[in-house]
Amino acid sequence: MNVIVIGAGGELGFHACEAVCSVLLDTGRASSLVMTYRATRPGHVSRVLAERLQGMKDGSVTEIQLDTSDHAAVQRLIEAESDRLGSTGLAVLFCAVPKHGGAASTGGTAVRAGIVDDVVFAARETMSRGGRFVAISTDQVFDGKPKTSTPIRSEGCDATAHDRARADLNLYTEDPEQDPTCPTNPYGQYKVEMEKSLLELAKSNGWDHLLLIARTSLILGLPPLLREFTGNSDPAAVQLDDALLADSGKAVRFVLNAISNSEQKPLVLFTDEPRNMSFADDLGCALAELAVERAHDENATGILNLVSDEPTNRYELALRLAATLGMTQCNAVPGESKTSGLNRPLDLSLSTHKLHALGLRTRLRGVSERLPVRLDT
Ligand SMILES: NC(=O)c1ccc[n+]([C@@H]2O[C@H](COP(=O)([O-])OP(=O)(O)OC[C@H]3O[C@@H](n4cnc5c(N)ncnc54)[C@H](OP(=O)(O)O)[C@@H]3O)[C@@H](O)[C@H]2O)c1
């Protein structure tokens, strides 16, 4: 199979490349992976795996520069890859995204074009050639307001089964009838436009079986030293230094930077914005599985909430990171989004029923499983 990962230098993109290499190797068939980047090269991605894939008969790994707004170049690339290696199939994973600001986004023409036009163009080029297309969306397509008159969502991972069943009623599903999108910021609005355009494109051309839109939530990138952390590991063995920060994903780096700097004002982190945070390495594996191994699975199409089961808030994330690193102080304080005046979506917890029904090999682990420390608060 020929796979193109667009935006391979990004946080999710490079983990997707690593996982795709591994999945392609497992198939044992002639395969190619093209990793595209704009400015940041996917330098340290999967060098060992890439070398092995390169070493396979007819295997290849290529890194090319591509700006997704250059539609002629996107077309040339997709056309070339769909013709390569005969008819072994094509999959395109679109992980590129312009800088957008998330819930605090202010939007703009270029951001909209990068999120909507560039993705839809690449999708048309891919699916018209019979290729599998995977796009990434966000929980910011919802407003996070309680769906029922009484807030019934349960907190944390110690909820009883009864609590969970009741809480389920308030989780956002993929079903547009049950959960119509209602974004509150430009980033969410553009992602809604992207989702709708892609679904319409697929439907009107009979390509529904080729399209997957993975909705995810906050992505956490752990540095390699923390990826295999168990509650029994010695926290002192991992030093919080520049190398560790450089190896962390954007959200983790931001939190670590702030909570370790006691000379700064404590960082206010919201406790009332639960998010189904997932880890970039797990997500990369799930995406590779969905794009390559499940390329012909009709259930793995349309919109899919691709997240861990565990809604967590940012304050808890900070406490867990601090405890994992053996920090005696965590320079953060809990705060409430609802009284902050920022008008951000509150509870964006997503249902994972469709994901579980797919029975993927990859499990998307939650924060308490990846950072299994005792919290005293
Ligand atoms: N991170 C999260 O918490 C989160 C949550 C929900 C959904 N998502 C979605 O997940 C996907 C991946 O996000 P991410 O956090 O991994 O992104 P990221 O780390 O910010 O990486 C984005 C990548 O896109 C590239 N890019 C931007 N504009 C481009 C263009 N015109 N042409 C080619 N490449 C371009 C960037 O390249 P350069 O740096 O070289 O410019 C960068 O490598 C996105 O669709 C995002 O909306 C992310």
From TrEMBL:
<dbReference type="InterPro" id="IPR036291">
    <property type="entry name" value="NAD(P)-bd_dom_sf"/>
</dbReference>
<dbReference type="InterPro" id="IPR029903">
    <property type="entry name" value="RmlD-like-bd"/>
</dbReference>
<protein>
    <recommendedName>
        <fullName>RmlD-like substrate binding domain-containing protein</fullName>
    </recommendedName>
</protein>
<feature type="domain" description="RmlD-like substrate binding">
    <location>
        <begin position="47"/>
        <end position="220"/>
    </location>
</feature>
<dbReference type="Pfam" id="PF04321">
    <property type="entry name" value="RmlD_sub_bind"/>
</dbReference>
